[in-house]
From TrEMBL:
GO terms for cellular component: late endosome membrane; lysosomal membrane. It comes from Oopsacas minuta. PANTHER family: FI16602P1-RELATED, LIPOPOLYSACCHARIDE-INDUCED TUMOR NECROSIS FACTOR-ALPHA FACTOR. Its main location: membrane. It is a peripheral membrane protein. Residues 1-29 are annotated as: Disordered. The lineage of its organism: Eukaryota, Metazoa, Porifera, Hexactinellida, Hexasterophora. Belongs to the CDIP1/LITAF family. This is Cell death-inducing p53-target protein 1-like. It comes from the Eukaryota. Residues 27-121 form the LITAF domain.
Amino acid sequence: MTYQPQQQYPPPQQYPAPQQYAAPPQQTTPIAQQPLPVKVAWGDSPTPMTCTNCNTQQTSVPTKKVGCMSWIIVGVVAFVLFDLVLWPCIPCAFLALLINGLKDTHHVCPNCNHVNGVKKMV
Ligand SMILES: [Zn+2]
């Protein structure tokens, strides 16, 4: 009987290959990107825009608000009614405040409710 010494193989050593990634010189030329203030022609309908507050692309939500034009009409109508001695009817002049066509249109961002533009009647 021959003694067979148990051969012990050393576990294969794993040398971590020295990894040296020479990072390619990434030249990122800083582009001076200054967003030009885009002049939006505000109308009465929803308008695509970039919100100046939250900087996202949104479609504005037009909301009607009483503006100068409404009050001018109220004044004119009240003056005419006053002139015609229809004094009890003078409060009716304030109905002009309800006419949407006379109101300013505020374009509100649906994301942050920021008013981005106003279409004024006057
Ligand atoms: Zn916004």
